Amino acid sequence: MGTITLISFIILSLLIGVILLLLWQRKKGKTIPLSVIFILGFFALGLGSIIGFVHKGEDYQAYQKLQWHTLAPEKIAPLVAQGYTVFVDITSDWCTICQTNKADVTHREQIVNALMAENIILMQGNWSESNSTIESYMRHEGIPGTPYNKIYGPSSPKGIVLPAKLSINDVLNGLATAQGRPKY
Questions:
Q1: How far apart are CA 157 and CA 142, in angstroms?
Q2: Disulfide engineering: 125 pairs with which of 1, 104, 134, 170, CB 3.0-4.6 Å?
Protein backbone atom coordinates (compact mmCIF):
# COMPACT_ATOMS: atom_id res chain seq x y z
CA MET A 1 0.00 0.00 0.00
CA GLY A 2 1.41 3.36 -1.02
CA THR A 3 1.86 6.33 1.27
CA ILE A 4 -0.90 8.34 -0.40
CA THR A 5 -3.32 5.45 -0.07
CA LEU A 6 -2.42 4.97 3.58
CA ILE A 7 -2.92 8.67 4.32
CA SER A 8 -6.25 8.60 2.45
CA PHE A 9 -7.45 5.66 4.55
CA ILE A 10 -6.39 7.43 7.75
CA ILE A 11 -8.27 10.61 6.74
CA LEU A 12 -11.32 8.56 5.76
CA SER A 13 -11.22 6.75 9.12
CA LEU A 14 -10.93 10.06 10.97
CA LEU A 15 -13.88 11.52 9.03
CA ILE A 16 -16.04 8.50 9.83
CA GLY A 17 -14.94 8.67 13.46
CA VAL A 18 -15.83 12.36 13.71
CA ILE A 19 -19.23 11.73 12.09
CA LEU A 20 -19.97 8.93 14.56
CA LEU A 21 -18.80 11.10 17.49
CA LEU A 22 -21.01 14.00 16.35
CA LEU A 23 -24.01 11.68 15.93
CA TRP A 24 -23.42 10.27 19.43
CA GLN A 25 -23.08 13.78 20.88
CA ARG A 26 -26.28 14.86 19.08
CA LYS A 27 -28.12 11.85 20.48
CA LYS A 28 -27.01 12.84 23.98
CA GLY A 29 -28.65 16.25 23.53
CA LYS A 30 -25.86 18.48 22.20
CA THR A 31 -26.95 20.93 19.52
CA ILE A 32 -24.96 19.87 16.49
CA PRO A 33 -26.41 20.95 13.15
CA LEU A 34 -27.26 18.09 10.83
CA SER A 35 -25.75 20.10 7.97
CA VAL A 36 -22.28 19.70 9.54
CA ILE A 37 -22.78 15.93 9.74
CA PHE A 38 -24.06 15.81 6.14
CA ILE A 39 -21.10 17.84 4.85
CA LEU A 40 -18.61 15.59 6.63
CA GLY A 41 -20.49 12.57 5.29
CA PHE A 42 -20.29 14.02 1.79
CA PHE A 43 -16.50 14.44 2.15
CA ALA A 44 -16.18 10.89 3.47
CA LEU A 45 -18.24 9.53 0.58
CA GLY A 46 -16.16 11.50 -1.94
CA LEU A 47 -12.85 10.35 -0.47
CA GLY A 48 -14.08 6.76 -0.32
CA SER A 49 -15.14 6.95 -3.97
CA ILE A 50 -11.74 8.30 -5.00
CA ILE A 51 -9.96 5.52 -3.12
CA GLY A 52 -12.24 2.95 -4.73
CA PHE A 53 -11.70 4.40 -8.20
CA VAL A 54 -7.93 4.53 -7.90
CA HIS A 55 -7.74 0.98 -6.51
CA LYS A 56 -10.38 -0.78 -8.54
CA GLY A 57 -8.40 -3.99 -8.57
CA GLU A 58 -6.19 -3.76 -11.65
CA ASP A 59 -2.41 -3.65 -11.35
CA TYR A 60 -1.47 -0.63 -13.46
CA GLN A 61 2.22 -1.39 -13.07
CA ALA A 62 1.92 -4.95 -14.44
CA TYR A 63 3.43 -3.94 -17.79
CA GLN A 64 6.80 -3.46 -16.07
CA LYS A 65 7.05 -7.27 -15.81
CA LEU A 66 7.07 -7.68 -19.59
CA GLN A 67 10.42 -8.72 -21.06
CA TRP A 68 10.73 -7.06 -24.47
CA HIS A 69 13.47 -8.16 -26.85
CA THR A 70 14.81 -5.86 -29.53
CA LEU A 71 13.20 -6.52 -32.89
CA ALA A 72 15.17 -9.21 -34.74
CA PRO A 73 13.15 -10.22 -37.83
CA GLU A 74 15.58 -13.01 -38.73
CA LYS A 75 14.79 -14.78 -35.43
CA ILE A 76 10.99 -14.82 -35.87
CA ALA A 77 10.68 -17.82 -38.24
CA PRO A 78 13.07 -20.07 -36.22
CA LEU A 79 11.25 -19.21 -32.98
CA VAL A 80 7.86 -19.99 -34.54
CA ALA A 81 9.28 -23.27 -35.91
CA GLN A 82 10.21 -24.17 -32.32
CA GLY A 83 6.58 -23.63 -31.24
CA TYR A 84 6.86 -20.10 -29.89
CA THR A 85 4.42 -17.29 -30.51
CA VAL A 86 6.12 -13.98 -31.34
CA PHE A 87 4.34 -10.70 -30.62
CA VAL A 88 5.90 -7.83 -32.59
CA ASP A 89 5.25 -4.24 -31.55
CA ILE A 90 6.59 -1.39 -33.66
CA THR A 91 6.10 1.83 -31.75
CA SER A 92 7.55 5.29 -31.30
CA ASP A 93 7.52 7.82 -28.50
CA TRP A 94 5.90 10.52 -30.66
CA CYS A 95 3.07 8.28 -31.95
CA THR A 96 -0.14 9.15 -30.08
CA ILE A 97 -1.97 6.01 -31.23
CA CYS A 98 0.99 3.93 -29.96
CA GLN A 99 0.75 5.56 -26.55
CA THR A 100 -3.02 5.05 -26.52
CA ASN A 101 -2.54 1.37 -27.44
CA LYS A 102 -0.16 0.99 -24.50
CA ALA A 103 -2.47 2.70 -22.02
CA ASP A 104 -5.68 1.02 -23.21
CA VAL A 105 -4.41 -2.42 -24.21
CA THR A 106 -0.80 -3.66 -23.97
CA HIS A 107 -0.18 -2.24 -20.48
CA ARG A 108 -3.45 -3.60 -19.09
CA GLU A 109 -3.10 -6.42 -16.59
CA GLN A 110 -5.23 -8.89 -18.61
CA ILE A 111 -3.02 -8.46 -21.69
CA VAL A 112 0.19 -8.45 -19.67
CA ASN A 113 -0.82 -11.80 -18.15
CA ALA A 114 -1.56 -13.20 -21.62
CA LEU A 115 1.75 -11.93 -23.01
CA MET A 116 3.70 -13.39 -20.09
CA ALA A 117 2.86 -16.98 -21.06
CA GLU A 118 6.05 -19.02 -21.28
CA ASN A 119 5.68 -19.75 -25.01
CA ILE A 120 5.42 -16.08 -26.04
CA ILE A 121 8.37 -13.99 -27.15
CA LEU A 122 7.93 -10.21 -27.21
CA MET A 123 9.84 -8.19 -29.80
CA GLN A 124 9.66 -4.45 -29.93
CA GLY A 125 11.07 -1.90 -32.30
CA ASN A 126 11.02 1.69 -31.08
CA TRP A 127 11.12 3.87 -34.17
CA SER A 128 11.54 7.12 -32.26
CA GLU A 129 14.91 7.44 -33.94
CA SER A 130 16.11 6.16 -37.29
CA ASN A 131 16.75 2.42 -37.19
CA SER A 132 17.74 0.37 -40.24
CA THR A 133 16.40 -2.93 -38.82
CA ILE A 134 12.95 -1.44 -38.21
CA GLU A 135 12.99 0.38 -41.56
CA SER A 136 13.86 -2.84 -43.39
CA TYR A 137 11.19 -4.82 -41.53
CA MET A 138 8.51 -2.19 -42.16
CA ARG A 139 9.48 -1.94 -45.86
CA HIS A 140 9.20 -5.74 -46.12
CA GLU A 141 5.78 -5.57 -44.44
CA GLY A 142 4.69 -2.74 -46.75
CA ILE A 143 3.75 -0.46 -43.87
CA PRO A 144 4.87 3.20 -43.83
CA GLY A 145 4.75 3.93 -40.10
CA THR A 146 3.68 3.21 -36.58
CA PRO A 147 1.82 1.70 -34.85
CA TYR A 148 2.27 -1.79 -36.19
CA ASN A 149 1.57 -5.03 -34.32
CA LYS A 150 1.82 -8.53 -35.72
CA ILE A 151 1.56 -11.93 -34.06
CA TYR A 152 3.38 -14.95 -35.47
CA GLY A 153 2.65 -18.42 -34.17
CA PRO A 154 2.59 -22.13 -34.98
CA SER A 155 -0.85 -21.79 -36.60
CA SER A 156 0.04 -18.50 -38.33
CA PRO A 157 3.72 -18.58 -39.30
CA LYS A 158 3.24 -15.67 -41.76
CA GLY A 159 1.70 -13.65 -38.95
CA ILE A 160 -1.54 -11.91 -38.12
CA VAL A 161 -1.55 -8.14 -38.54
CA LEU A 162 -3.50 -6.40 -35.81
CA PRO A 163 -5.44 -3.16 -36.36
CA ALA A 164 -3.55 0.11 -35.81
CA LYS A 165 -5.92 1.02 -32.97
CA LEU A 166 -5.79 -2.05 -30.73
CA SER A 167 -8.45 -3.51 -28.50
CA ILE A 168 -8.04 -6.14 -25.80
CA ASN A 169 -10.04 -8.60 -27.92
CA ASP A 170 -7.80 -7.93 -30.96
CA VAL A 171 -4.74 -9.02 -29.02
CA LEU A 172 -6.39 -11.98 -27.24
CA ASN A 173 -7.97 -13.27 -30.47
CA GLY A 174 -4.72 -12.74 -32.38
CA LEU A 175 -2.80 -14.75 -29.80
CA ALA A 176 -5.43 -17.50 -29.81
CA THR A 177 -5.45 -17.74 -33.62
CA ALA A 178 -1.65 -17.72 -33.87
CA GLN A 179 -1.47 -20.52 -31.29
CA GLY A 180 -4.32 -22.54 -32.82
CA ARG A 181 -6.68 -22.04 -29.89
CA PRO A 182 -10.35 -21.00 -30.03
CA LYS A 183 -10.98 -17.25 -30.13
CA TYR A 184 -12.38 -15.32 -27.20
A1: 18
A2: 134
Rounded to whole angstroms, the Cα distance separating 102 from 155 reads 26
Ramachandran region of residue 160, left (φ > 0), alpha (ψ -120 to 50) or beta? beta
Spatial separation of the C-alpha atoms in residues 114 and 117, rounded to whole Å: 6
Phi then psi dihedrals of residue 166, to 5 deg: -75, 155
DSSP result, 86-123: EEEEEE-TT-HHHHHHIIIIITSHHHHHHHTSTTEEEE
Local structure of 22: helix, strand or coil: helix
In this predicted model, what pLDDT tens digit does every residue of 44-87 receive, in sequence order?
999 888 888 776 667 778 888 999 999 999 999 999 999 999 99
What pTM does this model have? 0.70
Three-state DSSP class for 42?
A: helix
Greatest Cα pair distance, the chain, in angstroms, is 82
**Which whole number is the average pLDDT over 86-107?**
95
Give the type of residue at 106: T
Length of the chain: 184
